[in-house]
Amino acid sequence: MKLDGKVAIVTGGGSGIGRASALEMARQGAQVVVADINAERGQAVADEIGAEGGKALFLPVDTASYEQVEGLVQETVHRLGQLDIMFNNAGIGGMQVSVLDMPVEEYHRVLSVDQHGVFYGIKAAGQAMNDRGGVIINTASVYGFIADRRQFPYHAAKGAVVMMTKAAALELAPFNIRVVCIAPGLINTHIVDGWRDNEKIWTAAQNAQMRRRIGEPEEVGKVVAFLASDDASFLNGHAYFVDDGAASFKR
Ligand SMILES: NC(=O)c1ccc[n+]([C@@H]2O[C@H](COP(=O)([O-])OP(=O)(O)OC[C@H]3O[C@@H](n4cnc5c(N)ncnc54)[C@H](O)[C@@H]3O)[C@@H](O)[C@H]2O)c1
């Protein structure tokens, strides 16, 4: 029970990596606020945690809105008394077309969630944690480090998450707030549903990991719970790859 007595918010907690991380942090003793734009999925995960004997509640949020992210943090502190762990994880994949054909609105749509939503979470949570310390974990991607085709806005956002993590860690260090990010490889969640129907794309995606398999969300959730715990007390300002070596070799 490494997170006993801690309060955690997980954005995008209704599915995939967020769901697995919320479940794992609750198993480690944290009270978890499952925050998601999809109320049905978010409430289901909060119920799942409750059924396991953990403590969780669902709060709706669109992380593309600063007012909503700030409201989420304030509501959490109001109801649970504190905030110790902020997992800025909500994200979308976006349209897959060449940068030359990328609609400008689509670029802004992806950045509004995948980049700006993370900034909003850092700012709001940092203010709430200010006088007692805490941990902020952001979800980047191997695509924050290596380029692929037809994912330009996603690359822009995830690269920004890596640098926002470093800059925020430096600025929040005086308040004893650690800021780290994870960089997952291909993980078995809804975000990659669109790739599964095309055998060529799906095989190539799996082969991008050293052991040629997709990762399971639970394999990421366990890392997130570790990063949130005091066992990771000297980990700060870096990205941690959860990718079976995907970013370490030439395909
Ligand atoms: N699955 C992968 O292969 C992979 C790899 C690298 C990084 N990631 C990142 O992991 C994070 C989680 O994605 P996932 O793979 O679990 O996908 P997912 O689609 O299963 O889960 C994403 C969740 O975020 C929620 N969400 C989307 N937009 C939101 C918004 N504006 N406000 C609040 N909630 C919102 C969705 O409702 C969903 O519950 C994302 O940031 C994604 O970019 C995923």
Automatic annotation (TrEMBL):
Superkingdom is: Bacteria
Sorted keywords for this record are: Lipid metabolism, NAD, Oxidoreductase, Steroid metabolism
What Pfam families does this protein map onto?
Answer: adh_short_C2
For this protein, the record's SUPFAM superfamilies field holds:
NAD(P)-binding Rossmann-fold domains
Family membership, please give it.
Belongs to the short-chain dehydrogenases/reductases (SDR) family.
Protein name per its UniProtKB record: NAD(P)-dependent dehydrogenase (Short-subunit alcohol dehydrogenase family)
